[in-house]
Amino acid sequence: xxxxxxxxxxxxxxxxxxxxxxxxxxxxxxxxxxxxxxxxxxxxxxxxxxxxxxxxxxxxxxxxxxxxxxxxxxxxxxxxxxxxxxxxxxxxxxxxxxxxxxxxxxxxxxxxxxxxxxxxxxxxxxxxxxxxxxxxxxxxxxxxxxxxxxxxxxxxxxxxxxxxxxxxxxxxxxxxxxxxxxxxxxxxxxxxxxx
Length: 195
Description:
Elements: H1 5-15, H2 22-37, H3 55-74, H4 79-88, H5 93-116, E1 123-136, E2 142-156, E3 162-170, H6 172-194
Helix pairs in contact: 1-3, 2-3, 2-5, 3-5, 4-5
């Protein structure tokens, strides 16, 4: 797994016994999993065992831990993958095993949570347009240019529960460019579906 520098530094801090003892490490990992799984979970700053730790350090470690957890679940990482990633950021065997035990305990719930997130982007369901002709602008200068007012109706998600409108104005050249790009996108999708 590839980790950003910020996440790697947070995990290195989490691995360092000088910053977090094993007891505090275990509490932080427990809070990280609980915060991902529960919408009403107490925050990392509310845990009684973690109140003595610097809040900025605690926040950085918590973000790094939750990011690593989500990435591991997303990639369906096994013990060897997780262990090798944690070894790279200086985790000792005891902390690595403690993390993996918590990971195994919560993995199914996290997989269910990630699979329930709707990944379907908004899609256009209808389009309408209107031609306006601008004679003068706000500075009383003559413009004499046509303007197209375009409106797209969109629906979010697979079930189409939420709908919204996207409205914009464009010139004839901009409209021609949009139509050309939409045609290109349609051809690309057609070619991709034939593969």
